[in-house]
Amino acid sequence: MNSRIPRNNRHTLIAYNPSWNCISMLINLKKHPEYKEYQKASIELTERLPPHIQPPCHLTCQFKIGFCQYYYLLSMTVSGNIQVICQRCLNEFSHEYVNSTELALCASEAIAEKLMADFESVVYEKEEIDLRELVTDELYLYSPTTHEDIHECNSDIKQYLEISE
């Protein structure tokens, strides 16, 4: 379990690799050599989404894990089409979400604090991380809350905000 992320078992993650012979919900960091090359996970999130994102949210996550001296480095790219409710005009729009992140996965708060200048850090327990929880947190941090261009917003809100075409 990751210290910054509340556990919620109602998400669905399907990560499949033929060599695993199973569908995996968690990534066991002790098996990090298996993740040296990019792996691909298809994720459907329906719970704990940011309030401006409409469920279900279908995403693809490509990730790999490397071991550094005192921590693991998770490199991941999350992509997919998400339905966003613009927080400016309240109209729903489709957004092609793509974001790459590197996270330092640390066994203790002390290591995480030392790495915060260089990486976003997550403290793990029991040598496991839940990829779906990390992806959900990423949506909170990096997903758009409004149309990229205000001119794409509803004309009534543009008039209210006194935005001219």
From TrEMBL:
The keyword Cell wall biogenesis/degradation does not apply. GO terms for biological process: ribosome biogenesis. The keyword Protein transport does not apply. Pfam families: YceD. Keywords: Ribosome biogenesis. One of its GO terms (cellular component) is cytosol. Belongs to the DUF177 domain family. Plays a role in synthesis, processing and/or stability of 23S rRNA. This is Large ribosomal RNA subunit accumulation protein YceD. It comes from Legionella birminghamensis.
